[in-house]
Amino acid sequence: MRRIALALFAAAPVLFAQAPALLFPDASPRAQVSQKVGLTDIDVTYHRPAVKGRKVWGGLVPYGQVWRAGANENTVVAFSTAVTVGSTTLPAGRYGLHMVPTAMTWTVIFSSQSHGWGSYSYDPKEDLAKVQVTPVPAEPMERLAYTFDDPTETGVTLSLRWEQLRVPIPIVVDTRQVVVASLREQLRCLHQFFPETWSGAAGWCLRNDVNLDEAMTWVDRSLVLRESYAGLRIKAALIEKKGDARGAEALRAKALTIATEAELNQAGYGLLGQNKLDEAIALFQRNVKEHPDSWNVYDSLAEAYALKGDKAQSAANYRKALDMVKAEDQRVRIQEELAKLK
After folding, report:
1. Residue 166 bridge partners (DSSP)
2. What Cα–Cα distance (Å) separates residue 288 from each residue in 272, 304, 311, 317?
3. pLDDT digits (tens, 9 = 90+) for 45-63
4. 3-state class (DSSP) for residue 90
5. pLDDT tens digits, residue range 272-323?
6. Are 325 and 302 in contact (CB under 8 A)?
7. How far apart are CA 146 and CA 148, in angstroms?
8. How far is CA 205 from the centre of its chain?
9. Contact at 8 Å (CB) between 99 and 109?
10. Could you tell me which of 39, 114, 47, 125 has the C-alpha nearest to residue 83?
11. In 10 A of CB 323, how many CB atoms?
């Protein structure tokens, strides 16, 4: 037995060297936050040190020295498309985030090196963008955190929060150009075989007043595949922007000849929105004539008459709609509208 014990003891260092590593909680746990701006994904991966009663700014984090903006590995910010920070446009990619704190303004650095340990291997030659920001007082935060504040369709503020300080980093996205580039790519895929996608892409450009010349080619492609109410309306609006009001009117008139019940209804409400009550009523009357079995056409016509102040015609059409509609919530709503007309 003594010989066996000695043999095991002699082999112990080898056995221990091969033993798997044990997992323990990280003193500064890893975290990740994400935000979508338009079609652009922004992700931040970092580690969260704690205050633990220590002096943080000018103490644990010295002033005037490059800091990893977190703990352990350097903080990493990833963009799925190009963004602008400060006056610099950064292409899609992963960036190491470093900061140089001072008692007043801070320098925020985006580095091409995104997998270093802390800031120990930081090299200013790898800087791709540097932004001067001013920290602001904030609610106490025991563990460092990153948040996305005030997101819009074209930007967001990435904020480092720790102790009682917030460090805001504005990020701007040219969402219109990002979407246009995305639409071009999507229209190379299966979407290209469907007229709705070509007209839908053109319609987005029209609503956002961007890429209008290419949008015209897209809507034309849609109309070649199949002539539609939506496609004709979009083309009408595009050529009207170019100054061809007469051509636009002709296309809108043509669109109405092939419009469905829902499309006629939509056009009528568009006219109501422009306060063109008589034109809207004429369109709703046409919808009633073409779709007499639909309760909704009478309901819309009644609403238009009510806006014009013709209570008798409004009530008559609401009663027709009420006689036909089955959904209880709609019946209750129409009964309420009738009560208002008394």
Report:
1. 136, 161
2. 17, 13, 18, 10
3. 999 999 999 999 999 999 9
4. strand
5. 999 999 999 999 999 999 999 999 999 999 999 999 999 999 999 999 999 9
6. no
7. 7
8. 16
9. yes
10. 39
11. 10
**Residues paired with 10 in a beta bridge:** none
For the chain, domain boundaries = 30-172, 174-258, 273-342
Q: Which two tokens stand for residue 186?
A: 């999507």
Fold of 174-258: 1.25.40
According to CATH, the superfamily of the domain at 273-342 is Tetratricopeptide repeat domain (1.25.40.10)
**Residue owning tokens 């996205």:** 173
Apex 82 CA angle, 78 and 83, nearest 5: 80
Question: What residue type is 2 in one-letter code?
Answer: R
Distance CA 247, CA 67 (A): 62
**What six digits make up the tokens of 116?**
């270093």
- Enter the DSSP assignment of 20: P
3-state secondary structure of 162: strand
- Which pTM value belongs to this model? 0.81
In the chain, DSSP finds a helix count (H) and a strand count (E) of 11, 10
Q: For residue 206, what are its two tokens? A: 């029209």
Q: Which residue type sits at 150?
A: D
